[in-house]
Amino acid sequence: MKQYRLGFGIVAATALVALTTSTANAAVPADTSELREAVTAGAIMDHLAEFQDIADANGGTRASGTGGYDDSIEHLSALLETAGYDVTIQDFEFNSFRELSDPVFERVSPNPVTYTPGVDFYTAEYSGSGEITAPLQAVDLSLPPGADANTSTSGCEAADFTGFTAGNIALVQRGTCDFAVKAANAFDAGAVGVVIFNEGQEGRQETLSATLGDQFGDPIPVVGTSFAIGDELAALLASGPVSIRLMTDTLISLNVPTQNLIAETPTGRDDRVVMAGAHLDSVAEGPGIEDNGTGSAALLEIALQLDELEVEPRNKVRFAWWGAEEAGLVGSQYYVDSLSKRELKDIELYLNFDMIGSPNFVRFVYDGDGSAFGIRGPSGSGAIEGVFEDYFESQGLASEPTAFDGRSDYDAFITAGIPAGGLFTGAEDAKTADQVADYGGLATFEGASVSYDPCYHQACDSMDPVGDGANAALYQALNVAYGGALEYRGIITNVNSQALDEMSDAAAHAILTYAMSTGSVNGAGKAAPIAGEKVGDRLGAHYLR
């Protein structure tokens, strides 16, 4: 039986998964079976139970800037140092945002309507606080919407507010510029509140969950809503006055200290570093067991098993657990910004794992070559996508692409021209019937659509979602649909262990494949043309523009 030596650990080649589809993949034949067998869903679930215990001891959260996050860092650091990794704690500061009470958005007149938070509208992240009732005034709207996205320039220039009446609430439309620009221009024109509605094209009609970014400081309430509601308000304004009531109750804390955790192998080429990262923080509302305990715990177990198997990689492997991702990808951006040009060049690629155990999962692979969504990563990203796709195909498992839209921590790396890729199992979007055919689960329940993660960004993203307020019947149905895969120690969790097992195996396979590679992932090793440019409309979980 032929053997391959990985450092001083020896693995058998009986279950070889070779990825040599092209020289651009820079992936030598590597037997990853021993690592994949060592990385088990059971061990990862045990790590998640420890995250839950940490949250329970800290008010139910592991958000950056809280004791729950600090204890999570300390817990991982101790395990990784014991395993022999070179561990670095990187301190930084960020501005945190919280809603202190439910917001209000009402049409007072004509024909009073009370809109439902979380359904009809969202408070924009980093909105100021305030309670006001005032006339609504439209600002340079493009209705009907243009055929293409970003046809509207509503609110993007101060001139758009010529003739705006101070003391009114501005109605602006998504398009072209960041929401922070629209809100700041409105404030400068004397607006006492801002309602931003979606632009209107296909894919830009849903209720808008916007962020103003952590540098926004104007003290006015800002909310995002759907195209349908914005279009209706605009039509009413064409017929006469419209009065709106807005109330937001938010807390923005400045210069909150938090940390990134970096752990790298003591051996391997330091001019061809393979990075793998996951954000460690939760939202303030809950413990973040699926988002992103799953990615964090999977990387932890992969790191521990690399040590246990005594793997000595050809290329240095650098694991990262990011802070303040939920505040707008702050930790990963801070890390990339802190690197010298030489240090940036030494990073061969970045692999991102954010939410890889969604209870109603899909196997998503980041669209590195841009063939599905038109947003490509730097040169080599398509090869990384191919490594994951080839692996899933070798296991007889379906997968599908997801966009590089700025939603997670890969964003800082692809903007810096570093090839990137990774995995995702879905968040708030609804699962389709076609996806149920490929991945199991539920598209509907009791007549309503079912998302990939029904507890996304809620207190019930926990090891006991039903006990934390989730729909008991829905979670029981999901558990049945997946043959008990949501259970841990007899309790239904917000994590699908089938997804966790399959995705952590794929993550282990890609990390070890590139750790043992002898070539450059992007061939020429040049940064992509997009380097230095922000791509996608998202900044973390929210839309930036």
Keywords:
23% strand; disordered N terminus; 545 residues
Topology:
Layout: E1 3-6, E2 9-12, H1 33-38, H2 41-56, H3 67-82, E3 86-99, E4 104-109, E5 113-114, E6 121-123, E7 130-138, E8 169-173, H4 179-188, E9 193-197, E10 222-225, H5 227-239, E11 243-248, E12 250-264, E13 269-279, H6 289-308, E14 315-322, H7 330-338, H8 341-346, E15 347-353, E16 364-366, H9 381-394, E17 400-402, H10 410-415, E18 420-424, H11 433-439, E19 444-445, E20 448-449, H12 472-481, E21 487-488, E22 491-492, H13 497-515, E23 538-539, E24 542-543
Parallel strand pairs: 7-8, 8-9, 9-10, 13-14, 13-15, 15-18, 16-17
Antiparallel strand pairs: 1-2, 3-12, 4-5, 4-11, 6-10, 7-11, 12-14, 16-18, 19-20, 21-22, 23-24
Helix pairs in contact: 2-3, 2-6, 2-13, 6-13, 9-13
Q: What is the end-to-end distance?
A: 57 Å
Radius of gyration: 24 Å
| Class by SSE composition | alpha/beta
Number of helices in the DSSP assignment = 13
Order of the strands making up the biggest sheet: 3-12-14-13-15-18-16-17
Short description:
The protein is of the alpha/beta class and 545 residues long. Helix content is 28%, strand content 23%.
Q: Overview of this structure, please?
A:
- There is one protein chain.
- This protein is an alpha/beta fold and 545 residues long.
- Helices cover 28% and strands 23% of the residues.
- The protein has an eight-stranded mixed sheet, with helices on both faces. Strands 5-4-11-7-8-9-10-6 form an eight-stranded mixed sheet, with helices on both faces.
- Helix 9 crosses helix 13.
- The longest helix is centred in the middle third of the chain and has 20 residues.
- The N terminus is likely disordered.
